[in-house]
Amino acid sequence: MGGTGSKALSSYQYYTTYTPNLYIGKGFNELPDSLRYLRPLAFTSVVGYDLYSNAATSNALEWSGSLQYSIPYLQEHVEDVGVPRPFRDMIPLVEFQMTTPTNRSAVPTTGTIDPGILWEGKYCQISLEASIPINGQTGPAVGGLFQVQVFIDDLFPKIFGHPIFFGDDDK
Fold this sequence. Notes:
mainly beta, 2 helices, about 5% helix, about 40% strand
């Protein structure tokens, strides 16, 4: 929302961005037995269009996605191929995030391709990825992403993870 945030920041902007998104996902669990080792593959994508309330700023197409191979799915639903822990809880993936200006800009598409690995446990998820720029306008060097997500609804199921209003007790 425009006009919110610290005016002390040099990047402070006085306009609002609206981004309607389309979410797309496809798993491959319906493949025939001859291709059963491809069943753990999944593709996800988000496509959005940034509309700025500031006429001087270029609108942009935001497109991102991921290709993942779920070792937990392989072990539990396809075939137990004997992958030991902690590797059986890992998901190799490649993500990408791109921005393509659509008007009022001479900047080409910018973005990164992010290969990495994700480990998922009962109470948290940890991921590590490289962040590779697709061109010089994106940036000069490879970076990295490290993320930890804590599943508070699993840690505290009596407090979180159930409806706040109109739960089973309210029937």
